[in-house]
Design goal:
Layout: H1 7-13, H2 26-39, H3 43-59, H4 64-67, H5 76-90, H6 97-104, H7 107-111, H8 127-132
Helix pairs in contact: 2-3, 2-5, 3-5
Length: about 140
């Protein structure tokens, strides 16, 4: 279905239950923006987005300058680590971490000691889709 049901209406009246409603937090969008800007070499723009997320959290802190000091580094690697950390703590318990770590290419380092294997970085293509493709699709390696 491509019809739009406002989220509040869907929750209140159980309408749109068959739709795949996507809800993105603004903090997630800002952190995606920060990560992309950093990778493109736009450290100032990355810091702006990162600091918007931290400023909201800082406003709720009893000791903001100690608990959440401003990130000021413009070094690409250090800023990447700061953004990854912020994604981890800001989006905790929202089922994003596994997919973030896979996307970032850090799975072997982080999940390897837990039994993760390299083939888990991609998903298998359903056999029915391979059959329907008439030989165009081939199964991902390791599956």
């Amino acid at each position: 279905m491509k019809a739009y049901v406002p989220f509040t209406l869907a929750v209140a009246t159980n309408q749109g239950a068959d739709q795949n409603v996507r809800v993105l937090r603004y903090a997630d969008v800002l952190l995606m923006n920060a990560e992309a800007n950093n990778e493109l070499g736009h450290a100032a723009d990355a810091l702006t987005s990162l600091e918007k997320v931290r400023a909201r959290a800082r406003a709720k802190s009893a000791n903001p300058t100690v608990d959440l000091p401003k990130v000021t580094t413009t070094d690409k690697d250090q800023l990447r680590k700061a953004i990854y950390h912020e994604r981890r703590v800001e989006l905790a318990m929202e089922n994003d971490r596994y997919f973030d770590v896979i996307r970032q290419g850090r799975a072997a380092t982080i999940f390897g000691p837990l039994g993760w294997v390299a083939k888990d970085s991609i998903w298998p293509i359903p056999q029915a889709e391979i059959d329907n493709s008439g030989g165009i699709l081939v199964q991902n390696a390791g599956w």
